[in-house]
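Hi D.,

Good news: the full-assembly prediction came through. Inputs first.
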Amino acid sequence: MPLSPLTTPETTHQTEVEESLDAPWNVVVHNDPITKMDYVTMVFQKIFGYARAKAERHMLEVHHSGRSVLWSGSRERAEFYVQQLHGYQLLATLESTA
Amino acid sequence: MIYRASDSQDGIVLAELEPFFIRLLAQIPACADPGVHPAARARLFASPSDEPGENMLREDWRELVEPELAHLFITAQETVATDLKALPLSESLGAEGGPGDYLPGTVALTIPQPHYEAWLSTLNQARLVLAARHGIGEREMAPDLSALPSERRSRALLHMFFHEVAGQALLTPPASAKERALLAMCQHQVLRQLLDEQNSPTDARERALLAINFYDVLQQLLLRELGYA
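Then the structure:
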């Protein structure tokens, strides 16, 4: 039995929403001229468990490029990381990759 | 010597503190409080998203997350304020932060090891709030000296010297009495030059920059103690 024309758009819409929700979210840290570079490196190590070298690479990317993507994944987890970063007073946002 | 750091099992000891540094230390919790200053509040309670379609997230953040962050920041400030109670009361500093009724060079402050994280957080809050309140940014923190007019260049140089000399004294305690005396002399000279400009209209901003630089040195010391610098 063919699908009713009315149901098709709804199905399409739902699929788009699901895809959008599934798309990874980036946790981005932005440059701030006041916060010390060593402090930023410490925060990356503590929150993400990164080794010092990796944390420093991200810190330097923030310093030179103005931003660095620290983590990508589920929205819920991204919000959690942004809150943690704000707790250390870093400028962090979450961005959709969709 | 104005102050020095010595490691002990209990924590860091800032010793031989003189009135200027006692005042800077005593002001830390107040400096960290953004009050109702819009720029300071916006910096401490930043938006979690720049995307236009995330209004609901921003609203939820203001309602649910910001109070938690505020609690976190205030708790750290209270820990620092408790440690600072060991400093002489403000009235004993004298009207102008002069010698007052204690012997200069005899005041010390201990930062207990379990409080390092609270100090790091509060010092960072204080630096950010001071910078936001006084419009201090990249130009002041890393000035391009060649691009500055001569008056501002000399001031920027003095701030850089202060930062360097304060950092040397704290991070690399002097090895000999001669080195100690030289560092003390440098600190006094640089500080006197900076504080002589009290009558200029930019006085509050200059003082904020001094505090930001001094708190930066303290943060560096704590990060080193924690093995992060």
